[in-house]
Amino acid sequence: MTSGILNVNKPAGPSSFAVVRTVRRLPGIMKAGHGGTLDPAADGVLPILVNLATRLADFVHEWSKTYLASVTFGVTSDTGDREGTLVPSGDISGVSPGRIEALLPSFTGRIAQVPPVYSALKQGGEALYRKARRGEVIEPRARLVEIHSISLVAYDATTATARLEVSSGRGMYVRSLAHDLGNALGCGAYLSGLTRTALGPLTLADAVPMAQLTGAGEEWRRWLLPMDLPLQGWPVVALDAAAAAAVRRGQAVVAPSAASGRCRVVDADGRLLAWGEVDAGRRLQPRAVFP
Fold this sequence. Notes:
Layout: E1 4-10, H1 16-24, E2 32-34, E3 43-50, H2 57-61, E4 65-73, E5 75-77, E6 86-88, H3 97-103, E7 109-113, E8 122-123, E9 126-127, H4 128-133, E10 143-156, E11 161-168, H5 174-185, E12 189-199, E13 202-203, E14 208-209, H6 210-214, E15 224-225, E16 236-238, H7 241-248, E17 253-254, E18 261-266, E19 272-278, E20 283-289
Parallel strand pairs: 1-14, 3-12, 16-18
Antiparallel strand pairs: 1-3, 1-15, 2-3, 4-11, 4-12, 5-6, 7-10, 8-9, 10-11, 12-13, 17-20, 18-19, 19-20
């Protein structure tokens, strides 16, 4: 079974799950999932994990993300982006590049952020956006997120729109960042455009356009990246034939003396067997096995 990661350039319009459904129709793909949701209105890098690589989704979610965001001031949206109902919200005469740049440091680092009401986060076992569409009053709880850096790329005074480059960890909503920046400036704002330019080692420059991928038939495999990409940089544990056979059966084995924590497990020929963790008893516990 062919497994790996596709770096897809998602267009604006379809949801991330719609892209996954399209990829699943390619020949030889039995299972697929994405490595980080992009809203329908957003475009850019969307990792698609194919077949056995879906077992590594959690580690793709750990990769840092970089966005190019357009934030328009003086207007708010009930969804936080251009897909919602837009309402004029304040005076933009005081907005300037200098004022924007002065505020950006307060949004960097580990901060508390309230997610959008229209989001896939669950409350009481149900997605918030479903509750919002029914007209329920929702008060999402603030969550700690990490924003590594924000920089002002450009500001267009004629449209009161700033272009920001944002680098963040998992769980950060750029829609919330736009909303909060507008509140800090006293005029409101919404996310009028969003492109994810990088996710971990995947870049927009190397991403395959959706139309090109879906029209490639059997040739889609030429864009497939190694399945163990999320594990690169981890300690490697090489096993002999007997220990490798045990790991393939999902059994724990005695860990080599130098191994600790989570690791990439390979056989004597360097082929990926599993990822695992070495416990306090020096046992290597396979967490996901790749037969």
